[in-house]
Write a structure and sequence with these properties.
Elements: H1 3-17, H2 29-40, E1 48-52, H3 58-66, E2 70-75, H4 78-88, E3 96-101, E4 114-120, H5 129-140, E5 143-154, H6 156-168, H7 185-189, E6 196-202, H8 206-222, H9 232-236, E7 249-256, H10 278-285, H11 295-299
Parallel strand pairs: 1-2, 1-4, 2-3, 4-5
Antiparallel strand pairs: 5-7, 6-7
Bound molecules: S-adenosylmethionine.
The site of S-adenosylmethionine (SAM) has 20 residues, from helix 3.
Length: 309
Amino acid sequence: MGSKVITQDIRAFWNSRAGLGLWAGTRDVIAKQLEIEAISAHVHDGMRILDVGCGNGITAIELARRYNVNVTGIDFAEEMVTAAETMVAGQHLRGAVRFQVGDVQNLPIFSEKFDLIYTERALINLPDWPTQKQAIINITDLLVDQGLYVMCENSLDSLDKINSLRERVGLPKITPPWHNHYFHDAEVQQTKFPGVKLEGVRFFSSTYHLLSRVVNAWLAAQDGKEPDYEAPLNQLALQLPPIGDLGQGKIWLWRKVDEIIPTKAHDTTELTGQDITFESLISSVLWESAGWIDWTALCRDEEKSPPDG
Ligand SMILES: C[S@@+](CC[C@H](N)C(=O)[O-])C[C@H]1O[C@@H](n2cnc3c(N)ncnc32)[C@H](O)[C@@H]1O
């Protein structure tokens, strides 16, 4: 099966999910909420923002609700864009948001560059690393000098860590869905991209994935049940800081710089800031947690649908 066929299948898959409201982009709404908070941490008033692979626009709309920003969301699935336009109608926003059809492999022409661009589980839908690498180049080309690309995507290495814990307690491995190609950390972090430097890596979903994919999954298995995405134990992660380097959801922060002094491959040991020391734990407990959306209440009555990425 060629990659063109796969691309068409993936677009059809996302078009088919456009009507699922809060579950359109993922069934895992707690992970989604953690993503919004992690992306939002890099936003401030006055920014021009591009959301690539915006889906039905939940994050873009939330950012424009919180900040006086100008957000453009693009997605290659036309029905997602239509759903986003419906979603934003009648909302009271501090900023502005607009949506258009666009493919990260052939980005539209914009009249201005952006202060901040993010992807939220969009590039994992590309078929392989060379295509993903080119997408990162396409995206960072659209940044102003000192602009930031917040690449919120899934890491195979972090999933492997969760899987090794699952194996220890007798749970089966989790494999990425058919339409996803998760990132290998070494490929991302050892590649030199023109005009950008890797500023940091954030393991924002580490606590959540330990709780949901190991502890809660194990408890459910003891009762012979399927784990519930909105289980109380999973929700606990919304009140806790990210601890450790587990969790497939990760953020790589890319800063646009005029000139890069050549170095060795990016060394992320100094970039993560996620050591589990008592001091770091205490300081992260003070982590800002205001402004959570009550997703679980919003989703309670919705139709069940499968997980995805
Ligand atoms: C996992 S969903 C996430 C949607 C949204 N970012 C969110 O978090 O709710 C992935 C999205 O990426 C979009 N996508 C996949 N490949 C794309 C491409 N080549 N160009 C633009 N969008 C793409 C899909 O249509 C889908 O809406």
